[in-house]
Prior knowledge:
By secondary structure, this protein is an alpha+beta fold. It is 39% helix and 20% strand.
Amino acid sequence: MQQQVAAAKEAALTAIENASNVTQLEQLKPDVLGKKSPLRQLMRLLKDLSAEERPAAGALINEAVAEVEQRFESRLTLLRDQELERRLALEKVDVTLPPPHRCAGSLHPLTLTLNEIVRIFVSMGYEVATGPDIETEYHNFDALNILPDHPARDMHDTFFLAPGVILRTHTSPVQIRYMKSHRPPIAIIAPGRVYRVDDVDATHSPVFHQVEGLLVDKHVSFAHLKGTLTEFLHAMFGRDLATRFRPSYFPFTEPSAEVDVQCFICRGKSSECRICKGTGWIEVLGSGMVHPNVLENVGLNPREVSGFAFGLGVERFAMLRYGIPNIRCFYENDIRFLSQFRARV
């Protein structure tokens, strides 16, 4: 066994020394240190030895493997240093060359989209309100009529930081905090990051951006909601596009509606449109009249005031606006992608 170990070790060390560059050495690694290398294969012979011989033989093999590993790493470091020295010797710097051109910065497409959304609503008289990303379950769920035993809780996969403390799943908690500290009339939008346990794919991310809106005053009706959102969508996508409201369900609004805008690519004339999937419509918003329970939770009398709320995803609007097929593009910091958006800082 001792002679076999010595022979296998010597062969491995010789092969390592004969490698003349990093590529050759890295290709050699499986042959000298891999599971099927001669040294590793000797481990299989231990079962044929007596119980007294086995520990010493095993230690001998391990020492040989350790020596080969050390020689491999030192040789790899040496070859890398030699290659770097050769490359540096060949490279020359022309000190007379002018410095590289400084490219002008540009805003991120999400920032551009969010700024446009905010601009439109501010022009309609809304104020911008913000709130913490780390929220209590009360503000994120309970105050919004999503009680602990409510089935709507299953719609949210939530990041829990501590008992009763979470990363907010929507920006609706901002509305609760604002209504508790302000009296009607209230007209706000709440932009910000939100967090949900979600697998990353072409249209989903565990971190994304929302803008939610709220208007509370006397005699607010669904007609006001329709007028506001229709005006917003026309300003965002063009006044020649139709909009429609479909009945839906949200625990914090009643009645509730999904809002669609006519496909601005095919105008409903193509069954193969990749944007609307041939339906002619694109879902862009969720909305509804503020639920009476939500108003009561913030100390308002639903018999005296009413309101509407809505929410939209900034990433979705940016993808529609710029024809971006994959949400991952927003977070990869690829300058080739980002440089296409030329609005300057």
